[in-house]
């Protein structure tokens, strides 16, 4: 489908590549198994299409959608994307694949490798993930080792749900909020992967442009955010926690009590339910996303600047206040240095969080693009120096991020290259994807490193170049 917005879209890394559009004709929902609560889809099936088919068949099943529902169910899972029901880890909730290898051979993984009776698909292909022998599915995610043409996805049986928001007035309570989330998530009291957002998002998700709130130069000042947030439904707060609980009404009521009590340690923390907020408040769109209904509301924050484009910086950080603060301080400092608005959204699990920064910039301004790219580059380097690495990145930063995973003299990349060369000896499939270059490209300076990222914005240095 190619909706990987913020991570490079459909752009191939090597100029002159042929882009294979799997969304146009490979868009069949091959099976929905209501008893097994699973489906088998081709790459062109969008979240909306799968949702609508389940509704059409009146099945009591949920899909799990990312914040924007226009993308490919398979594409998002293969890029290890996230959603917000209890099935939010999309790759962890896939079950079985069919893959076209670079030599044209067709491979089925998991139980799919064992033919079913009379040539049918194996009846447990979408039931048991690893099957027998090495579990190979992982090497086809975020890689260039094959084209996945079918994927099994688990669906969640529908259940009662209650979304809520908790607001925190003080900026400096951020590490303590993270400390409180950790045990709640580890004990599985939190129903889904909650989002912790900075209050700037309350302004941005109104879909109003930044110029409505601040018309001066540079990033919107904290005082301007405060002044305008005070007029919005959540008021003059600093951090906003969006969560959802699942179960029957009595169980949800108990869960909310535990959560309310835990966060009451933060001065001024306040829990609100959808009925406490106006119908156009963003919490109502979270109710949809967190109960498996795809929406597009999240795109609203791209109205922030004219001609908006965005980059995601997505390091994995331990769910610990002190680590969260280290990354937050890096991000705050570098955004200020490069004159960019800081728009963080943290997806917080029990042991790690995806600390996601949305850099929104005017793509018609080369200066803004260069500042956004420089900020990304410096955040990647500084975070890596502290031991924090990105879980996913824009194609422009693939070499840089891959280079940070360099333990044991780049043992991981050498392993990936060995697999790449064995499966794709001619190096035809997505060269450079996730920093993995086939043999015929290596040592020729194809990588984009350091300040070459900014030059690449003007189309310079994307191809091979001499290196000292
Ligand atoms: C406002 C906003 C909010 C977002 N929120 C989220 C979010 O909550 N969670 C999230 O995960 N993302 C989010 N994103 C990022 C992105 O838009 C989504 O992840 C989107 O679902 C990805 O696009 P897609 O599903 O069409 O995947 P694609 O673009 O189709 O696929 C992603 C990548 O996977 C590889 N790939 C795709 N298909 C295959 C295949 N058949 N075989 C092998 N490799 C393949 C390709 O390299 C491709 O670039 C957000 C983006 C925006 C703009």
From TrEMBL:
One of its GO terms (molecular function) is D-lactate dehydrogenase (cytochrome) activity. One of its GO terms (biological process) is lactate catabolic process. The keyword tRNA-binding does not apply. The keyword Cell inner membrane does not apply. Its cofactor is FAD. Residues 1-158 form the FAD-binding PCMH-type domain. GO terms for cellular component: mitochondrion. Keywords: FAD, Flavoprotein, Oxidoreductase. PANTHER family: ARYL-ALCOHOL OXIDASE VANILLYL-ALCOHOL OXIDASE (AFU_ORTHOLOGUE AFUA_3G09500)-RELATED, D-LACTATE DEHYDROGENASE. This is FAD-binding PCMH-type domain-containing protein.
């Amino acid at each position: 489908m190619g909706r990987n917005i913020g991570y490079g879209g459909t752009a191939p890394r090597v100029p002159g590549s042929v882009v294979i559009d799997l969304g146009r004709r490979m868009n069949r929902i091959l099976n929905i198994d209501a008893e097994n609560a699973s489906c088998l889809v081709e790459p062109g099936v969008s979240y909306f299409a799968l949702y609508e088919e389940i509704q059409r068949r009146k099945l009591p099943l949920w899909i799990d959608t990312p914040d924007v529902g226009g993308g490919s169910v398979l594409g998002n899972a293969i890029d290890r994307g996230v959603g917000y029901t209890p099935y939010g880890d999309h790759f962890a909730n896939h079950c079985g694949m069919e893959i076209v290898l670079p030599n044209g051979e067709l491979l089925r993984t998991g139980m799919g490798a064992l033919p079913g009776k009379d040539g049918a698909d194996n009846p447990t292909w979408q039931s048991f993930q690893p099957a027998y022998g090495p579990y190979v599915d992982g090497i086809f995610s975020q890689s260039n080792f094959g084209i996945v043409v079918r994927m099994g996805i688990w669906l969640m049986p529908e259940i009662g749900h209650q979304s809520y928001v908790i607001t925190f007035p003080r900026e400096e309570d951020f590490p303590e909020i993270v400390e409180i989330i950790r045990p709640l998530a580890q004990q599985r009291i939190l129903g889904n992967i909650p989002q912790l957002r900075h209050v700037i998002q309350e302004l941005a998700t109104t879909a109003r442009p930044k110029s409505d709130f601040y018309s001066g130069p540079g990033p919107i000042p904290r005082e301007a955010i405060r002044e305008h947030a005070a007029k919005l439904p959540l008021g003059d707060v600093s951090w906003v926690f969006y969560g959802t609980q699942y179960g029957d009404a009595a169980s949800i009521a108990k869960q909310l009590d535990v959560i309310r009590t835990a966060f009451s340690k933060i001065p001024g923390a306040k829990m609100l339910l959808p009925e406490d907020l106006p119908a156009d408040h963003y919490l109502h769109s979270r109710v949809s996303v967190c109960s498996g209904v795809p929406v597009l509301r999240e795109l609203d924050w791209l109205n922030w600047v004219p001609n908006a484009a965005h980059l995601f910086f997505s390091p994995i950080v331990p769910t610990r206040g002190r680590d969260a603060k280290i990354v937050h301080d890096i991000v705050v400092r570098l955004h200020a240095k490069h004159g960019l608005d800081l728009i963080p959204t943290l997806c917080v699990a029990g042991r790690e969080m995806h600390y996601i920064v949305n850099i929104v910039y005017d793509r018609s301004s080369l200066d803004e693009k260069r500042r956004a790219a420089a900020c990304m580059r410096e955040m990647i380097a500084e975070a890596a120096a502290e031991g924090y690495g990105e879980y996913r990145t824009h194609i422009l930063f693939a070499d840089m991020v891959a280079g940070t995973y360099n333990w044991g003299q780049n043992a991981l990349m050498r392993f990936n290259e060995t697999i790449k060369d064995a499966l794709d000896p001619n190096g035809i499939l997505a060269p450079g994807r996730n920093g993995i270059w086939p043999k015929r490209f290596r040592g020729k300076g194809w990588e984009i490193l350091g300040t070459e990222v900014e030059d690449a914005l003007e189309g310079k240095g994307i191809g091979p170049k001499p290196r000292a």
